[in-house]
Structure formats: C-alpha cells, structure tokens
Amino acid sequence: MTTLLDMYSKCTNIHDAGRVFDEMPQRDVVVIYSMISGLCRCHLPSYAIDLFTKMNQSDRDVGTWNSLISGLGQNSEGRAALIFFGRMRVEGVEVDVMTMISVISICADMAMIVHAQQVHGLVIKSGFELYLPVGNAIVDMYAKCGCMGDACLCFQNMPFKNVISWTSLISGYAKHGFGVEALKAFHQMEMEGVVPTMEHYTCMIDLLA
To answer: pTM above 0.90?
Structure first.
C-alpha cells in the first residue's frame, strides 16, 4: 500500500492517496513522508502541517522535516518554513545538505539578508560549503538579496563551478544594474570553457540593448 500511496502522491491524485492513507492499519515514517510531500505538491500546505504536527516528535526524522520545509517553500510559505526550520534545530534534529539547500532557496526567494547571513554561517559551521549545489544556492541567495559583493566572494571561493554557478552570478549582476560586471563574468565563463545557455545570451542581449 505504501507504493500505491506514493504513486498517487507523485501523480497529484491526492484524493486517492488520502484514501489509501486512511485505510492503512499502520503508518510508518516513509508513509507519512510520502503523504506530506503529496499534500505540498497539490498545494495543500496547511494539511501537510497538520499531518506533521500530529506525528510523535521521536518519529520526525530529517527526511520528514525536509519534506515539510521544502514543500512549504514551494508553496510560497517561506516564513512558515523558516519557523519549522527553527523548530527542527530546537528539537535537535541534525540538518543535512537537502535541508540547507531548501532553506537557502527560501531565503533567496524572500530576499531576507539577515536570515541569509545566519543560514550561511550555519552552512559553514556544518561543513556544507564545499558541496556544489549548496555553493550555487548561496551565490543565488546573495544575488537575489542584492548583495553582489557577497555573491561574488562566495562564487570566487567555490572550489568547483558549473553553468548554474555562472548563471546565478551573471543574472545577479544584470538584475542589479552591474552591466559591465555581467559582461566580464560572461566572457570569463567562456574563457573557462563553460558553454553558455540561451538564458545567458538573452541576458547579454538585454544588457546591450
């Protein structure tokens, strides 16, 4: 039944997923994780929160927390997601890379520089700054907060970079009116052998228009 519930959830057939969930005599963490994800995917974050809060505290593992925090962020419930992130830490649940990527993305979408700096500090403390997806998310976060100096510094300190890293930096420069810096970054990207995407060329056309 777990597989059936997961299938319905991923197909956004939340009604049938809920029916299977209600009929299950026992529900483990995997089942609840799947249901929370499905509720968030179907834009029902309040139901996901309700289901999560009814869980025993001891049953809430990092995957369940991540599912709720990420799902709330994807439903434009960033403030609620950050509140649950705070509760997660208070309850002593150890964060992982997926937790940090979700929280960084939420801070980026909300352009909350104070939270962004705090989360960046936690990333460093937790030793996740060397992970490429985390590094990309941090550059994007500072860029969306308008802190291009911090975005550039974090970009320069990344041991590895990919096209996403460059896109975050170039788009950030362009968005905040640093056309010359955006062009320089674009040419540097090409010199380092990274193939530009259509998004890069569109950005350059807008700058030169």
So the answer is: no
